[in-house]
Amino acid sequence: MNNESEFGIWPGEVAVELPKEYDASLYYIGRIRTPWTTRADCPKNARESDAVCTIELDERFAPALKDVESCTHLVVLYWMDKSRRDIVLQVPRHYGRQRGTFALRSPARPNPIAMSIVRLLRIDGTKLSVVGLDCLDHTPLLDLKPYFASTDSVPDAVVGWHVAGKG
Amino acid sequence: MNNESEFGIWPGEVAVELPKEYDASLYYIGRIRTPWTTRADCPKNARESDAVCTIELDERFAPALKDVESCTHLVVLYWMDKSRRDIVLQVPRHYGRQRGTFALRSPARPNPIAMSIVRLLRIDGTKLSVVGLDCLDHTPLLDLKPYFASTDSVPDAVVGWHVAGKG
Questions:
Q1: What number of C-beta contacts closer than 8 Å exist between A and B?
Q2: What whole-number distance in Å separates Cα of residue A144 and Cα of residue A80?
Q3: Tens digits of per-residue pLDDT, A122-148?
Q4: Per-residue pLDDT for A88 more than 90?
Q5: Which one of A49, A57, A102 would you mutate to disrupt binding with B, by most B Cβ within 10 Å of its Cβ?
């Protein structure tokens, strides 16, 4: 989540011309409250932090939370609204190698939708206390979904470039 | 993925007034080709089918696929463009009980972004052959991400209402 190149292009990075028009539109349905107010503060990934964050859902959608408390984990989709959308090849600072955008979880991507899996601690009205986020305070919320281990959990999945980079 | 109420409201379902304006916009970056051309054809969920589907990425974004072939699994985000967005309580036909939208994976939601985890078989140019999708043919593609077991896999996650419903 903390690719420092978000407002510029670093050596080795490549941008393309984006389509002239958009195809669909989004509502912000709430905000994510976290302890992190600058990119530098954010944990490098969600597993590095056990901070409790709060998802504040807009009141209008409150009824849609029915039965959510029965879920141990949720899929959270949110909007990384401070990112460039035209970069197809990028050089994450902490890896130092050029990678394709779709091989990275960087916020710089054509549609800057982030996905995080969170552990749900409790729900108070329209406020959800969760563990597993690494985004900036006030990040716009797009969606909440139940996490089904049967379809969403793949314990033996491998990101080859990442494994190789550690070797 | 196959909530037949997408164009109407069933008994027990509740809609709210949506915000007057959108907050952000999306590009369709490709299309998903599947064997299913009507809702009734689609598998009830992705685990019910081992059909090989094809993700056709727009040529403009081809360079962003660099290193993706090293991933065994991908997160696919796509747009369920035929869904109502104002329903907060719904009654999935195959469960028959009223549930909150955020406790369901139904396409009817304020931002109809679907998430599926797929197994990557191969990449030929801008065409990705994958297993694990259950959407209609020609569904618009929004994003591809590497699936990291370390943060994305939670084998013991439970959706309580779903387990209870089976008991």
A1: 272
A2: 16
A3: 999 999 999 999 999 999 999 999 999
A4: yes
A5: A102
Give the span between the Cα atoms of A36 and A43, in whole angstroms: 9
Write down the ipTM of this complex.
0.93
Whose CA is closest to A127, among A48, A40, A58, A24?
Answer: A58
Single-letter code of the amino acid located at B97: R
A contacts of B82 (beta carbons < 8 Å): none
CA dihedral A128, A131, A132, A134 (to 10 degrees): 80
Provide the shortest C-alpha distance from residue A100 to chain B (in Å): 4
Q: Vertex A113, ends A97 and B83: CA angle to 5°?
A: 145
Q: Which residues of A touch B100 (CB under 8 A)?
A: 63-68
Helix (H) or strand (E) holding A56: strand A52-57
How does DSSP assign B77-128, residue by residue? EEE-TT--S-EEEE--TTT-S-EEGGGS--S-SSS-EEEEEEEEEEEETTEE
Query: For chain B, how far is it from start to end, CA to CA, in angstroms?
Result: 23
What CA–CA distance (Å, rounded) separates A44 from A134? Answer: 7
Residue of A nearest to B119 (CA): A157
At A166, the amino acid letter reads: K
Map tokens 């959108």 to a residue: B22
Q: How many residues are listed for chain B in this entry?
A: 167
A2 Cα to chain B: minimum distance (Å): 16
Of A22-31, A88-97, A128-137, where does mean pLDDT reach its minimum?
A88-97
Q: How crowded is the C-beta side of A136, counted as CA atoms within 13 Å?
A: 16
Whole-model pTM above 0.90? yes
Would you state the structure tokens that stand for residue B66, as one six-digit string? 């660099």
Contacts of B116 in chain A (CB under 8 A): 151
| Dist CA B80 CA B137 (whole Å) | 11
Q: Residue A103 is nearest to which of B47, B101, B146, comparing CB atoms?
A: B146
- State the amino acid at position A92 in one-letter form: P
